[in-house]
Amino acid sequence: MHVLFPANQIYIFYTWNISNGASPYLFLRRPCEFLLFLHSHLHFHTHTSLKFNTSLPHAYPDFSRRPTDPCFFKPSHPLSTTPSDQISNQHTMSATTMATASISFSPVPTALITSSQLSTASLKSRSNRNCRIITASLSEKSQPIVTKSESSVPIRKVPGDYGLPLIGPLRDRLAYFYFEGRDDFFKNRVRKYGSTVFRLNMPPGPFVAKDPRVIALLDAASFPVLFDTSLVEKRDLFTGTYMPSTDLTGGFRVCSYLDPSEPHHAPLKKFLFFLLASRRQEIIPEFHRTFSSLFENLEDELAKKGKADFGGPNDQATFDFLSRALFGQDPAETKLGRDAPKLIRKWVLFQLGPLLTLGLPPYLEDLLLHSFMLPPALVKSDYNRLAEFFKESAGPVLDEASRLGISHDEAIHNLVFAICFNTFGGLTILFPNLVKCIGRAGARLHGKLAQEIRSAVRDSGGVVTMRAIEESMPLTKSVVYETLRIEPPVSVQYGRAKHDMVVQSHDAGYQVKAGEMLFGYQPMATKDPRVFDRAEEFVADRFVGEEGEKLLKYVMWSNGPETESPTVDNKQCAGKDFVVLVARLLVVELFMRYDSFEIEVGTSPLGSSVKITSLKKATF
Ligand code: HEM
């Protein structure tokens, strides 16, 4: 990897072999071994017991609404609009309607899932000791939570400890980034403690986060506690144990950092629901327009060089698509030009740097990225360019902000964050993951997807519609869910316990004190072998059919089960249905054009780096 620092930008180029370098490793390894030695000989245990105001559980309105079917494109013809597009003029919908209708791009058929089926999330093995517990599980669809009942599970003290102040967090940080690596860091401790719930320090720790101590929840039974806003507080926890300066977000605490109990949370989330719902008819045509051009360029590149990078062009296409679809604005025709992806990458680095590895020599990287926040002033002018673009492009959506009592300034900075961080950030991890998972699965799966997609499009009159996707593309839907299961793009979630409670894993209940920080590493919950067969494998048709759909409650990429919907009272991703729709559209676009394709895969700080090595054009 090479990192260049021109005057006001940071460019990062990846190579296939990111080497940690032997000497820096040894340099760091010895002090670390010393710390480990110190730690294992001096057991030191600290414990938080902060008190928080508690709030009652909020009502959970029914958000499931079947999509109307107005959006479509003709894959090989100019885009056109059906009469139903014109009839359902979504601009007439009020924000209140949006808040109770959610976005409804492609809701999961929740009717198939009964509460007794859902209760399979609960414990499989229990002991006979009776005790009073609070169980957080997925067992109730609309009230996913608290049963204060007599139940027979062994109650355990949460195992693990935090080590000496400063030393413990540094030890855990080095282990997480360099000595063990993220996945093994967690797996090794599961083995060590014989438990999927235990104490540890989460990076970054000193000097970025004041208190890195967390209780990790690493199985599908305990993880959903993090979704229950009656049990956990989500204030300022979006990035974990530290929060980046609000100087990076125009001086505002944007929606993602707000707890639902805070007064601005509901209007801001409604505002984003409104944005997505009001532009829903643009999604399919603009996606096709932008991504068909991306694939044409990849074909040219492949013909010239024998291989084509998917990541860079995908970044540009994703931003262009979002801008065209959600604001009717082509960025190339504005002062922003084609600069957005690199401005966003740099701005995101200033927020997430303490959680990333870029492949620099470890001692240098740990000092530069993980020990201090990069000063926001260095990215101010880039951020201002993005904010200016949204100010000029937002147009009528700002009227809705006013109706909701949100100032234009706050609305604009929330748009920057929702589009550039939440959406662009998420999709530019998800799309390469999707191409990687499907690419690796091979030609047989490709053939089946091509068959399914082309036949569904033929049956809907040669156009891609939401209905065709929802009703006639079960395998396409399944590969998207399976990708989101196997590699959730946002892998960590946090929540601070509001009450003393007992959190239940598959095997035991664990006492948690009010004020303690709960943390979940999602890939371990969504690859829980107690829930999924061949949990580590990409099984393309895992979610096909009635039995397959029952497993969707364990797909939790959106900070909530796939069978539930975002509301103003929860912290589930506001863009949940939008994300699932566009991911399906990428698969549709791929297999309308190609019978099969091949790839080469590498790593990048956020997600995967994918190169296309062959594209076999559609023959049927
Ligand atoms: C692949 C793309 C995306 C992924 C993986 C993703 C993931 C997530 C996750 C995991 C959270 C919860 C974080 C937490 O509180 O711990 C979240 C929250 C949120 N997401 Fe997304 N997201 C994506 C796209 C979007 C889109 C398209 C929007 C568009 C508006 C969006 C808006 C939000 C907002 C506003 C929140 C905070 C919700 C709240 O405060 O109640 N996200 N997202």
Automatic annotation (TrEMBL):
Q: Which GO terms describe its molecular function?
A: allene oxide synthase activity; heme binding; iron ion binding; monooxygenase activity; oxidoreductase activity, acting on paired donors, with incorporation or reduction of molecular oxygen
- Say which domain of life the source belongs to: Eukaryota
Alphabetically sorted, this entry's keywords are:
Fatty acid biosynthesis, Fatty acid metabolism, Heme, Iron, Lipid biosynthesis, Lipid metabolism, Lyase, Metal-binding, Oxylipin biosynthesis
Question: What Pfam families does its record include?
Answer: p450
Name the pathway it acts in.
Answer: Lipid metabolism; oxylipin biosynthesis
Q: Name one GO biological process term.
A: oxylipin biosynthetic process
EC number(s) per entry: 4.2.1.92
PANTHER family tied to this protein: ALLENE OXIDE SYNTHASE, CHLOROPLASTIC, CYTOCHROME P450 26
What task does this protein carry out?
Involved in the biosynthesis of jasmonic acid, a growth regulator that is implicated also as a signaling molecule in plant defense. Converts 13-hydroperoxylinolenic acid to 12,13-epoxylinolenic acid.
Similarity annotation: Belongs to the cytochrome P450 family.
Q: What is this protein called?
A: hydroperoxide dehydratase
Organism name = Rhynchospora breviuscula
